[in-house]
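Can't paste images in this forum, so I'm doing it all in text. The chain is below; anyone willing to post the predicted structure tokens underneath?
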Amino acid sequence: MKSSEDGCGTGTLSIGAVAARFGLATHVLRHWETMGLLHPGRDAGGRRRYGADDLTRVATILILKEAGLGLTTIRSLSATVDRPTRHKILRPAAEELRSRIAAAQASLALIEGGLNCEHEDVTQCPNYRRLIAERVGH
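Text version of the structure:
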């Protein structure tokens, strides 16, 4: 597949070129298109052609996925232009992320406590015992 300009000087890219640029499989881009997240143009032969706006959209989808958002949420966001609706969509995602961060911080504290513990048996470590007591509820 040709991955440079399409001959019309528009600078579009083939699906293979876009997939390679972002480290994706082509079926991922097709799936995103099926979900309404991407709308690439087509050449005379019906092949997908991705322009600069499409590349921005792919990068945006990847960033939002890295932030923990699902494709359905990303689709809802892409259809949203007003601030209150955007907040309604993002608020639950922010709460879930805060919860995961808190759990990760607690896990890190436990691991760091084990690394810093001078006891041979970590179960005898005061920090370990405190964490267990907090979990059990004593």
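Residues 83-116 form the longest helix (34 residues). The two ends are 65 Å apart (CA to CA).
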